[in-house]
Amino acid sequence: MTVDDHALPPVGVTTEVGRLRTVLLHRPGPELTRLTPRNNDRLLFDGIPWVSRAQEEHDAFAEALRSRDVEVLYLADLLEETLGSDEARELAIGSAMESLHLGESLRAYLSAMLFDMAPDDLALSLCAGLRNDEVRHPSPGLVSSLLADDDFLIDPLPNLLFTRDSSVWVRDHVTITSLAMPARSRETQLTELVYRHHPRFAAVQRLHGWDREYVEGGDVLLLAPGVVAVGVGERTTPAGVEGLARQLMSGGIATTVLAVPITQDRATMHLDTVCTMVDVDTVVMYPNIADGLRALTVTTESPAGTPATELELRVTRAEPFLHAAAAAMGIDELKVIDTGLDPTTAEREQWDDGNNTLALAPRLAVAYERNTQTNRRLEEAGIEVVRIAGSELGSGRGGPRCMSCPVLRDEV
Ligand SMILES: NC(=O)NCCC[C@H](N)C(=O)O
Question: Which residues form the active site (predicted)?
Answer without folding.
Answer: 402
